[in-house]
Structures are given as structure tokens and as C-alpha cells.
Specification:
Two copies of one chain form a homodimer. Chain A is α+β, with helices and mostly antiparallel strands and 227 residues long. Chain A is built from eight helices and ten strands. In chain A, the strands form two sheets. In chain A, strands 1, 2, 3, 4, 5, 6 and 7 form a seven-stranded antiparallel sheet that branches. Chain A is globular and about 50 Å long. Chain A binds a DNA duplex (30 and 30 nucleotides) through residues 144-145, 175-177, 185-192, 194-195, 208.
DNA sequence: CGTGAGGTTGATCGCTTTCAACGGAGGTGG
DNA sequence: CCACCTCCGTTGAAAGCGATCAACCTCACG
């Protein structure tokens, strides 16, 4: 086992659900997914790793009666399915029309073996993954609905918005129900919280999928209760 | 980097919060903790790894206003602090009088380097860690209070109870408040749910810290909604 | 142009929280 | 040795927040 593979495997295990990385272009093929089309299902053989090229996907689990918990969203540049398990432990589907690159796990490890920079870049990008999962535990267990929605918008803003712009514009590539299942609330409550934030002048919603953040400080005060 | 170290690091990153393992006896010292005495705090330099010898500890995060979310409990045989981070990303304290073995990270990696079995054993034991975190996301986001308590008792039963006994006896080495912060509810609600289970004849509570599981099937029906 | 999915809003219900009181166990000091 | 105190667990009453049920709207699409 070479050091390069070691680094890559380290990355693979640390990255529990989704991580950003630049993967090699070789030995992969891509696939188009429509909204709500599954990429893989819980229990499937975990032979591939997936890089989101465009659109977005969500990883989730469902209970017997249909209740669903979204574990994470993945956006362009993110990679999912890197867990060290022989079968996927959650399902994954597109939340909007998306383009996904499939990479055979075998090929990926071979690539990384030849190019140490790949593993290194992946490792660098994965440092905050565990922390994000801890944040999500706190969010699910201890935050109110309004705080959950504020935290979600805040995270999206920091990740996707133009940092130069005075007013951050974020696009929601998923439905209210997807957001609700991620935050552990209902889609109606998501809607009501967004309206509440809008009426307080903290955000604007020119289109259902577009949010303008007018008062990032107020959003932080609501969503950022961390010590 | 040798293959042994690679496996150990792999383990360290996959094991986000707590994992079972047998660590080498050398190069370590032990420490006694009283109830609610901290083992380390979020932000401390992560120089050591800890093995629970007796008692129990909980890993948790707190919000600015004091709301607390317990990430995981660790019992004798469990190891915590193996994350690949320079500082602890959560706090940890004893939930009852406990004995902890401290292991310098440097020494641990050196040990594993000399004895590949150590890394291999740790890796074997860590396979279910990610799945447990996924289960906990579902529990926090989508289960009712009664289902949460049932799931918690079920997990404890499977982990600690005599498998031969007709009636499983489990000991709770933590307070109701600790359980509540783990399940994302209040201690009063934990109490009420335990009472409800008792009145239904599913469990007995001879002492506050002792639970007898009388009807494991009913407990599974309540707590085990997974598909 | 009809249809269905997604989003918003309203009204009501109910579960969980909050506030409060009480009892028991354990520890401390008079 | 006992009084006292604090922590923990339980239970009750009331309030509140989010869920549920339902109606209506817009928009994309066939």
C-alpha cells in the first residue's frame, strides 16, 4: 500500500457523507438525473463514487412509515459515496435536474495512486466534514424552527453567495419539503419561517427558489448560537 | 508511511466520536473522574486519546444560552478523541464516577506502527460508527419522544444486556438530563416516556438507574422504524 | 387549456415544553 | 446522630410551538 492510497483512504473514511474535491478526469462517465430521480438507494452495492457536476442531490434515510431525514445536500464540486462500506447506507436522489460524474472506486484509488496531489487535495477539503455533522446534531436536537431555517440560509450564504456583494443572493436547488426533511420540520413550517424572516426585513424572496439576504447580522444572531 | 499507520489513521478519521477498540497497554496513564467532571473541553489541544475503563462519559456541544446536545455516550472499552483534528471539536465529561486511560496520540501511532493487529482491530470495530451517526440523525429529526426513548433503551439493551437472560437488565450510568440532551428532548419528557413504557408493561424500573426490559418486541416496534 | 406539483397561508390540534411542587437519596456540618 | 441542603427523579397544570388538515395560488408542462 503506497502513501498516496493511504491518504486517499484516510479521506474516504473521514468524509462520511459529502465532501468537496477535484477528482481526476479519467476513468469516469457521467449521467443526467431529473428531479427526484434516485442516484442510488440504501443497500445498493457501493461500487461507485459520485461527483456533482451541476444541480444538486440529497442523501437521506426513510422510516417504515415514510418519514424521511435528509442527511446532507451535495452541490457541484462535492463528492459522495466515499464511505468505507460495501453498500450504501443511505439513499441519494437529485433535488433538481443534475449532472453527475460516476467514478468506479477501483479506478479512483488507482488514479490517486498515480497522482498524490489528488489524495492530498481531497484530504485538505475534508477537514470540516466532521464539524458539519456535529453542527447538524445540535441543529436537529436543540434549535427552534426559526433558528434551523436561519442556520440553513446562513450555511448556504457562506458557501454559495458572492462574498463581494452587499446583498447575498442564494439559489435554493431543492424544494421546501427537501429543506424540511433536512431540518427535521415540515414544509409548511419552512414556508412560515421564511415568511417570518421576510416580514422582518432579513431576507427577500423574489422567486421561491431565490433568496436575497438583506441583513446577514440578524441572520447570524438567529442561527449562530454556538459558543 | 507504513501500511500499519495508514490503517490506523483510516480508523481515526472514520471514527468520528467514539469507537470500541483494544489499545496497547504501554505508554499510557489513567485518571479518575467524578460525576460531571470534564475530561476535556471543546477547543482544547487534542494531544490525547482516551479509553473508558469504567463508568461512562458523554461528548457534547453547548449553545451560547446553555442548550446542550449530547453527541454520544462512551462506555468501558470505547475510545474517544481519535478525530483527525488538532483540537477537540466537542466537550467531554463523566456521567458517573469513571476511570479513564489517557494515551498520547504520538505514542498510540507509534504502537500501531509496531503492531499492525492494533490498527486492524480498531478498523474492524469502527465499521458501524458512521451508521450509528446516521441513525442518530433520523432519531433527532424524525422520531417522537416515545420513539426516541424506546430507541435509546433498545440500543443500550443490545449493547450491554445479557443476551441469554429472558429479561434484559440495563443500567443507566447517566442522569435523565444527560439522556434528554442526547435525544433532543427535556428530562421531564424522558421521565414521562419511561413512565409510559412502565405502565404499558414494557419495562420495569426497580431503581431509577436500572431498567428491566420485559417486552423487547414492543420496544422494537416503538423504536425500530427503519426500513 | 387542463393538470399536477410546489408554495403559501389559515385554523385547529396535540405533543412537548415550561413552570411548579414534591419526595427520596446522599453528603455535610452542627 | 440528626438536621439540613442539594441534586435527581417524578408528576401535575398550563402554555406554546410546530404539526396537521385544508384551501388557494402560481407556474411548468403536456
Amino acid at each position: 500500500m503506497s502513501a498516496h492510497v493511504a491518504i486517499l483512504e484516510e479521506f474516504a473514511t473521514q468524509t462520511n457523507v459529502a465532501a468537496r474535491a477535484e477528482l481526476p478526469d479519467h476513468a469516469s462517465r457521467s449521467r443526467e438525473l431529473g428531479t427526484h430521480e434516485p442516484l442510488f438507494l440504501e443497500g445498493d452495492d457501493a461500487r461507485s463514487v459520485f461527483e456533482i457536476l451541476s444541480g444538486a442531490v440529497c442523501c437521506f434515510r426513510v422510516l417504515a412509515d415514510g418519514r424521511r431525514q435528509v442527511i446532507s445536500f451535495a452541490y457541484p464540486g462535492d463528492v459522495i459515496g466515499l464511505e468505507h462500506s460495501d453498500w450504501y447506507q443511505y439513499s441519494c436522489e437529485a433535488t433538481c435536474p443534475s449532472e453527475i460524474r460516476l467514478i468506479a472506486k477501483d479506478n479512483l484509488f488507482r488514479e490517486a495512486n498515480m497522482n498524490p496531489d489528488i489524495g492530498r487535495r481531497m484530504l485538505e477539503r475534508s477537514g470540516d466534514q466532521t464539524m458539519r455533522m456535529l453542527d447538524h446534531f445540535v441543529l436537529l436536537g436543540r434549535k427552534s424552527a426559526l433558528e434551523k431555517v436561519a442556520s440553513f440560509l446562513l450555511a448556504l450564504t457562506r458557501r454559495h453567495a458572492d462574498e463581494d456583494a452587499l446583498t447575498a443572493r442564494i439559489t435554493l436547488p431543492m424544494t421546501r419539503a427537501d429543506i424540511a426533511d433536512y431540518l427535521g420540520i415540515t414544509n409548511e413550517t419552512v414556508s412560515r419561517c421564511l415568511t417570518k424572516l421576510r416580514l422582518r426585513g432579513i431576507i427577500e424572496i423574489p422567486m421561491p427558489q431565490t433568496i436575497l439576504v438583506r441583513d446577514i447580522d440578524a441572520l447570524e444572531e438567529l442561527g449562530e448560537q454556538e459558543t
